[in-house]
Amino acid sequence: MARRPLPSILSSRPTLVRGRDLARSAADGASDVLHPVITIARGMRRQAAWTGGWWGRTPKDRRGPALLLAAAGAVVLVMMPYGPLLAVVAVIASAAWMGRDRGAGAAAGPGEAEAGRLQSLYEALVPYLSDPADPAPLYTYDGSWAKAFTSFDFEGGRLVRLHLRYPAYFTDGEAESRARVEQLLHAKAGRGREYRFDWNEEENHLTLTALPPLPTDIVAQRFVTAPGETVLGFTDAEAVPRTVPVAGGGEETRDAPPVVWRTGSRSTEPHLLALGQPGTGTTSLLRSIALQSLVHGDVVIVDGSGTGEYACLTGRPGVLAVEDGLLGASATLEWAAHETERRLIAVNRARQEGRPVDEDARRPLWILVDRPTALSQLALAEGRPDPQLLLDVPLRHGRAASVAVAVADQLDATEALAPVVIAHTRARVVLGRLAPEHVEAVLGAAQRTTPAAEVPPGRGYARLGTGPVLRLQVPSTPDPYDDEAPAPHREAVLTLLPGSLPPAAEPDPAPLPAPEPSSLRKDAVIRTVADLT
């Protein structure tokens, strides 16, 4: 039997194709013609959504004044010439702007590699930020990072900033829970850099920021500070509210955020304790403090290591003593105790008599002690009193007498530090490569950043009193008599020494004559070395 052909209405495929093309062309033409209307309608819908969201966020006690203000504005518009017309034009223009096509912005999103890194980071957080009992979990194994990561930034293919949300039941108040998440983010975001974690417990947000390395080209120099202020080093720009001009490795001058230690009668942390391993820069820190302190006051230096690191300061104006032996150090510290008592008596008498305090009692005095535990061991071996106990009076009463004490020692000798030293040094500095738990043990608070991959000399953390833990880079202040130190750094220290002339003002290259050694004050009570034996 022959097959009958199909009806023409069913077998005419070209006619259907032409009809579909005509319909598509008509729809495209209509969309082109009505594109302004569609854009304005989309913008009005977004405006209405924004207005509803704003009304929902506005407290109830402020809604009445807001309505009154809106009504007053409407009345003013109606009474103005062409006011309603201008209002309609403004609304349409804003709707057209809000309803514009934002396809270009969507195309600027993360690339394929960046999206893959975000997705892997999201999946790694699932075991830590999810709960099987959660009916609508924010972190699931088959979920997407787009609903948890609100903003992010990449630089050179590496994640430099990430803002994420986490569920409210996550125990963000527990240090162990935070540490697990921070360790995971540090590993997944890329090691070799320092990251800062800002936890917003109120809104359940966490911001991860990759921190740039701190500058290591800042050398010792005259910093722009007020009397009683000492620059310990430099930190992140977001961590402190001020900057000071500094000169780096070249001739250019830039602004850098300093960590300023304030001393004096109004200071809440008048004494400093710096700890670190050998070669981490604690001696350079004390040398930097000495150079800055000599601008406004006098300095007494006790070098327990006996290596001559402070020989450049011997006999300089304002340097009352530089001692590195047990007997000389004990005599100097005892003088400092009697000097503190004398100043307290002078201040008390001046206040009782209603007159200004004498200049010799108001001039700041810094007592810098390096490696006191080494002197304590020598004293113990010889059966003498511990020299650290002589710091009791300056530490307890130095704030009122304009006396500041800075102690530096090795981290493994903290058990030998006297309790009075630990109790009264509220400004703390720790230098070198240390575990986070060691930093917390010294500073009394956990650091907000991950450990650094490379730790140059002078790199560490600082905490002043009850303030936050700050990253710190001490300015390079080497011994000017150390031939292994860079020549520009040694010249910078030599220029800052009292009694020295700047290189441009030197009449000839011949070395300057050493100034006459300055002795301790005559009005102080000092026991001689013979009395100590």
Automatic annotation (TrEMBL):
<dbReference type="InterPro" id="IPR027417">
    <property type="entry name" value="P-loop_NTPase"/>
</dbReference>
<feature type="transmembrane region" description="Helical">
    <location>
        <begin position="67"/>
        <end position="97"/>
    </location>
</feature>
<feature type="region of interest" description="Disordered">
    <location>
        <begin position="497"/>
        <end position="523"/>
    </location>
</feature>
<keyword id="KW-0812">Transmembrane</keyword>
<feature type="compositionally biased region" description="Pro residues">
    <location>
        <begin position="500"/>
        <end position="516"/>
    </location>
</feature>
<keyword id="KW-0472">Membrane</keyword>
<protein>
    <recommendedName>
        <fullName>FtsK domain-containing protein</fullName>
    </recommendedName>
</protein>
<keyword id="KW-1133">Transmembrane helix</keyword>
